[in-house]
Amino acid sequence: MKPIRLGTRGSQLALVQAQSVKEQLELIEPSVQVEIVPVRTKGDESQARPAIDDGDTGIFTKAIEDALLRDEVDVAVHSLKDLPTVQPEGLAIGAVPERLDPHDVLVSRDGLTTGDLGRGIRVGTGSVRRRAQLLALNDEIEVVALRGNLDTRLRRVADGDFPAIVVAKAGLIRMQRDDLPTVSLPFDKMLPAAGQGALAVEVREADSALMDLVAELNHAPSALTTHAERMVLHRLGAGCHVPVGVLAELHADGDIQVRCAVFSRNGRTALWARLSGEDVVPVVEAVVEDLIGQGASQLIEPWRDDR
Fold first, then answer.
1. Annotated active-site positions, please?
2. N or C: which end of the chain has fewer CB within 10 A?
3. 185-225 pLDDT, tens per residue?
4. CATH class of 230-306
């Protein structure tokens, strides 16, 4: 079998993620050789800009998907939270490997907690979702735009440029970065992005042999919960760059719980919904209906072009 070309972003975290998928594929099928192919994305080019958020949907994924469609790579690995809720025609998510901890974490040099955040405390983030939830927590927090890959952002804390930043815990786990104090932010204060902590392995639908191979990587509970989260986003008409947090969790009895919050940009308005049930679709529909009934559409409308 010819080598499988695995497309990914070229950031250090993305390469670590791709390496983990490469190793799993080669373990499943020892005769397979996987070659990692870095692809530069629009999101990588935008990292130097000072804006708090880039509203283009798929800025970290489209170039990789285009390479997949042009047969320049055979498999693509994405952070699932970056992937738009609708795949391009001809592509499909072939697997969602086991998800890591979806919490956001506060990273600081001095072991700050949420109780320490207030007037004069600068917290760095490039996410409108995190910004809105920080301001909902305490509107005196000075939320400052922060771009760059994970190592760059952590270095800004270590160098004293920022007292604290907020990042995804899963990224720290994958990069084995435990050299700075971190505090996991509870879900009632900081709901994650849809799919946060999970990877998506994307393939061409017509490539049945690769679809079958990649399917061996799938972790059914992770695939189910992240699918529910992405369904909530899609049905709300909210894209990846909208201040919406959502989390689905499986209970021991088999029920699925979905909670979602929609925020205004400044965090002063926060709409929450939380429901559980046996089947994903009715629970998602009930959560979306609840939020729309509270006025979520009015909060999301300014972001419609981001879908």
1. 81-82, 129-130, 147, 153, 240
2. N
3. 999 999 999 999 999 999 999 999 999 999 999 999 999 99
4. alpha beta
